[in-house]
Amino acid sequence: MSDPTIIDGKKVSKQVQEQAAQRVEKIKQATGVTPCLVTVLVGSDPASITYTQMKRKRCEAVGMKSMKVELPTETTTDQLLAKIKELGDDPAIHGILLQHPVPSQIDERAAFEAIPASKDVDGVTIASFGAMAFDLPGFGCATPAGICDLIDAYDIDCTGKHAVVIGRSPILGKPMAMMLLARHATVTICHSRTVDLPSVVKQGDIVVAAVGIPNFVKGDWLKEGAIVLDAGYNPGNVGDCDYESCFPKSSMITPVPGGVGPTTIAALINQTSIGAARQLGLDPNNL
User: Fold this and answer.
1) Was domain 142-262 assigned CATH 1.10.1040.50?
2) What range(s) does the Tetrahydrofolate dehydrogenase/cyclohydrolase NAD(P)-binding domain occupy (predicted)?
3) pTM over the 0.85 mark
4) Domain locations in the chain?
């Protein structure tokens, strides 16, 4: 087998952001309105502060406005819901991102559901999941949407392939499975109660690792020539796959960092531009 292809997430994310920038410019020309993304952060978790800063910076890089709302750690669910409703009612705001996780006293699902579906550019609401699962206009969760951008950029044909998704979180594993199903893959979702996980993973032509455990997936679990998409990012800049052992068994593989990560933010930015177009009465596919 020839050397595996290392999937370049930085390159793909740049391409996606360039598309978003072009759409933003056309929106401005057509309407005089600058699309705007607001990031909502509750508390002062250093990693979350960094992530929201990165998202706002990327937003501004494509010509959009960015706005930040920072609430104290002791914020209640009701207070957060009221703030999200206020933002949702503001026509100058086109996308709302609630940085997660939120402090433990907050009902995170209720907070997500307070985001209007038209402004749910991070794809975290039940409405967005339903639209995506039924192949209707909506927004995909940002990380699975970013993975789909990688799939498209590298001309990976999912039709008839067996895709194994390891992890069933509502914002990664489950939507990823639905997106792969929409691409005509046969999909298996694995989780903590899957019996003999390595033997199930070994059936996968495409393997998506989304468990949040460093170096969890081993190379001897993989079918020869599998496509490995590592959605994990753990302390020490390592993914959910043991890269050294998985690399020689794969035909294509995402590195960590530099694989899935960059495309997550790019997908968020792109979906904000799409949401703005729709809210302003424009067809995003024609921009």
Assistant:
1) no
2) 142-277
3) yes
4) 31-116, 142-262
